[in-house]
Amino acid sequence: MRLALCGLPGAGKSTLFAALAGRKLTGDKGSDQAGTDILPVPDQRVDKLSALFNPKKTTHAQITYLDPAPALAKPEDPTTRLPPELRQCEGLIEVVRNFDAGLGAPNPKGDHAAFGDELLLNDLITVERRLERMAGERQRGRKVDQEEQSLCEQALVILEDNRPLRGDRVFMDHPKLKGFGLLTARPLIVVANNAEDDPAPPDLGTPEPPVVVRAAIEADLAELGDEERAEFMADLGLTESALETRGGPGRCAGAPPPTRPPASSTATCKRASSAPRSCATRTSSPWAPRRRSRRPA
Ligand SMILES: Nc1nc2c(ncn2[C@@H]2O[C@H](COP(=O)(O)OP(=O)(O)OP(=O)(O)O)[C@@H](O)[C@H]2O)c(=O)[nH]1
Ligand SMILES: [Mg+2]
To answer: What is the 30 CA–ligand 2 centroid distance (Å)?
Structure first.
């Protein structure tokens, strides 16, 4: 399974990716390099069975994590604002900034809504363009696929109502829609990237709270050797890092015990808010470059 990290610029995607991959951040934090890593999904059942039967080889399920480089956007085409790799993944992990670090006061609820709008807008344009092409083909006397047309029309109604497509399995699985790479039809895990001293999940206006990580701490931990890491964690009062639960960006290190299973379980695959939102009413682009600063050492 391929999962792509996504979200507004500066949300901490690359920092979280480095923590998940258990490796140092390449270059300066905030660099635009893309990354891919394949990680096993921790599964105690597999471990128990393996210990019981002692097979020659034990293979855990694997997840490929992608941290795509920011897209080279053409201002006139909103569909170029998101990295194209998002369309090739089976699921999305949206990272929402909930720290300041010189980037400005966090607005996790607003950022989550803005990114949701961006996904919706992309799908809306994709479906509209396909319907336009089909209308053109019909005009030229060519036959069009009735089922595909009907699916596109149904999708258009939902998207025009500012609702994502992931509520309906038809749009998630249908082979005739596979090639479209519809983004709101992908399962979505929402991860709040919290400030170092804040373990509480922010209110995103969604029915369920997001998974919380503190990516900066996790990335720092990933850079340490075992002994130093244990010391650093003890200093911070942490019992577990993302590296130990990296089948997914699991729970917030040091946070109260989780109220739900880790992200590798479907229980944390949330639906984006289905509350109507308007793409048109947004006044400032969330894609404007943000001021970056390195965290103080
Ligand atoms: N304090 C704090 N700073 C963070 C955290 N996560 C990321 N940062 C900082 O925020 C800045 C942006 O982080 P990145 O990981 O590069 O963000 P990104 O989402 O990959 O950014 P783009 O790829 O440009 O969209 C960097 O200066 C990071 O050091 C965090 O959890 N806490
Ligand atoms: Mg990045």
So the answer is: 6
Name the H helices within 41-140.
Answer: 44-53, 108-139
Ligand 1, CB cutoff 6 Å, lining residues: 9-15, 29-30, 32, 70, 99, 101, 193, 195-196, 214-216, 292, 294-295
Cβ-contact 206, 112 below 8 angstroms: yes
List the domains of the chain with CATH numbers: 2-104+188-268 (3.40.50)
Distance CA 95, CA 59 (A): 29
3-state secondary structure of 260: coil
Q: Can you give the pTM of this predicted structure? A: 0.80
96 close to 108: Cβ distance less than 8 angstroms: yes
Q: Render pLDDT for 62-84 as a digit per residue (tens, 0 to 9).
A: 999 999 988 888 877 888 889 99
